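Note to self: keep these together.
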Amino acid sequence: MTDVPDGRLAPWPELLRRLREDTSSSLWRSAARRLALDPLARASHSRRRVRLAILATHTADFLAELLPVAALSCGIDLEIISTRYGSIEAELLDTSGSLRAARPDYVLLSGTAEDLQLGAGASDDVVAAAVGRWTGLWAQVSDSLGARVVQCTFPVPADDPGPAWLPGSDTSVVTRVNAGLFRSGPGRVLLVDCDRLAARYGRHAWRDERYWDAIRQPVSPGALPLLARAIAGALCADQGLTRRCLVVDLDGTLWRGVLGEDGVDGVSAGGGPEGAAFERFQRYLSGLRGRGLVLAVASKNDADLVSLAFGKVPGMVLRREDFAVVIADWRPKSEQLLDIASELNLGLDAIAFADDNPAERAQVAAQLPEVDVITLPAEPADYVRALAGRPTLEPAHLTADDRARASSYTALRAAGDLRIAASSMADFLDSLRMRATLRPLTAADLDRAAQLAQKVNQFNLTTRRHSRERLAQLMEDPGWRCFLLSLEDRFADHGTVGMLLLRLAGSTAQIDTLLLSCRVIGRTAERTLIAAAAAAARKAGCATLTGIYVPAERNALAASVYADLGFGVTGAASTDSGDQDARAFAFPLDAEGPAVSPHIEVLGHPA
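Structure:
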């Protein structure tokens, strides 16, 4: 099959990869038309189904056409719920309207600079009124729809009649309003920084006044793909679909030169114009690691030479300890990535791969289509731009657990060495000196709890994707008990890595959700959570503790959890989503158990 510039004949996987990198309007319009004619592609290439309502003070029809393909490139089947523009408050107040009947998962709120009373001066009252309006809408959306807000911020106008430094300038008003939204938004809503997008695209090109005058569309057609991709990135992060590990090459990617040919003294990552681009790229990667993205290396190289290079190549920003896994040998890159995924206990759909060599990228894309293969430009100075704004690398609200994640994965390597040396699995687990902290879910934990619910796949017995809003409801419901588990060992504090949601119903307590981060699979921490569930159920006067296992694509390793702990199989289970293969298990609470882990010291008693 021959590809054409607009992508009409490209296979869907290839086209979706291109949409993550290429924002040309011709490609995006072609992809939108193709998706409209091929609705089956939504189910074939998505992992989540999401309903998004658009509430805007301007026309958003063209944006609504592009959003489904932007979302599909991130693995989301997106249904758009359109409303009349300029009627935000009326739509939210209409208790019997179509918006409430549609029950959106997210609501996109978008306005224009015209909504901010520009020209009226930058008085505190003007700025406060604008911030108050939009943050008030956040509360209305949550209260009336139970949906999560995606808020577009306001681009600074390209043509400000006054100097930007004047307190009364348009630039000052927009900047102060955006600052107010940024202060109020984290943890409450998803923010799309349209001012940064406009600066990246070019402020004069971002808004075409002809389209504003004719149809009240504030973003030029050429800039709409960039905006659609950014909105999809916010949804991708909130749905737990962003990549957790970035694997990079070395020669020509992390440093200039070829290590095997030029030697350690012949390659560099700084020290002049030729190396500056690689130093800048490494600093950007270091920033990604700081927000929780795990780094790894897949290189066709001599392993001993690579180890030497990390400490001696001039200009190196990143060190060996910054990478959770480093693989250097002469096998195909696809095999190297499989080993990295296995060592980190990650699925291939959690991995992104960046390499300057087109042949290596093509080989990985062909063999491992789940991996997000990133095209690095021919010019190293543009490497950072290739990663910046990529929707599959967009961060969600940053938590303390995100900041510690990279160090936690690095610690797994040390634990792996210990496991090899141990005489038995029990001896290995004891040698880790693990301590778990159990606590009830609180408002301060909602962001992390929602991350776990959206991201965890392998050890997730029902794969129910509870939203932040739903978890907030369960936390306050007297008929539920919500527990979180944090784990530390001799090598690292792994942070909050487990969650259990328990529903009390008369004489029965049912484990609705039981999940553990892939970083602690195999350490028996699930026993700590189930024991806590049993204790809470007994305290509530329940006679039976039940659990459900719903087979999914990647959670087979959790299939025997309940049986291993002495639960009896009660047959097929009935679930709200109608899962055909669900199985129910039960444990009588008049019996002793379920058994706790003998390898973990437990701190805290949330029941």
